[in-house]
TrEMBL record:
It comes from Dyella telluris. Residues 124-170 are annotated as: Disordered. Residues 159-170 have a biased composition (Basic residues). InterPro entries: BacA/B. This is Polymer-forming cytoskeletal protein.
Length: 170
């Protein structure tokens, strides 16, 4: 009767970085993290169940890479939330936001780009292509072929279908 079973979430221990604490350097965590202090560096977690809660006095100067994040404070850097990102009314973000699911409360401020995508790896910046040793080595035939295969702005759907029927490789 008095021995109630604790809910599953009660077994997780939350890490706390209190108001007034300043950490310089990168921080990696697992499980839940409640940050009320200041972090000058990258904040990340490889744990699929990790939850970052940035309190109203919390301040992160660096990128955040976590599956779940609830932001009430200030972030100066990019946020990469692979599952869910919540921006509360007191949230202030200066940087780009990459998310799968976003909850944006009235009053939250974002100064940057917001990018949605189910595959977060696809949102990483593309690797630079190797430099072409001779950029002028293209022949005129190659240039004509690329121009002929790309539809012009005035080309209609019917014209594109006819061209594709005549040249299936285009």
């Amino acid at each position: 009767m008095f021995h109630r079973k604790k809910p599953d979430h009660a077994d997780h221990r939350t890490s706390l970085i209190a108001h007034g604490t300043v950490i310089s350097g990168n921080l990696t965590f697992t499980g839940p993290l409640y940050l009320q202090g200041q972090l000058q560096g990258e904040l990340s977690s490889g744990d699929a169940d990790a939850v970052l809660t940035l309190g109203e006095h919390g301040d992160v100067q660096g990128d955040i890479r976590v599956p779940f994040a609830i932001i009430h404070g200030h972030v100066r850097g990019d946020i990469h939330a692979t599952h869910r990102l919540e921006l509360a009314a007191t949230a202030r973000v200066t940087g780009n936001i990459h998310y799968t699911t976003l909850v944006l409360t009235v009053g939250a401020q974002v100064n940057g780009h917001m990018r949605h995508g189910a595959d977060m790896a696809a949102m990483e910046p593309p690797a630079q292509a190797p430099a072409d040793p001779d950029p002028h080595a293209d022949t005129a035939a190659d240039a004509d072929a690329s121009i002929a295969s790309s539809p012009g702005p005035a080309e209609t759907r019917r014209e594109r279908r006819r061209r594709r029927a005549r040249h299936p490789a285009c």
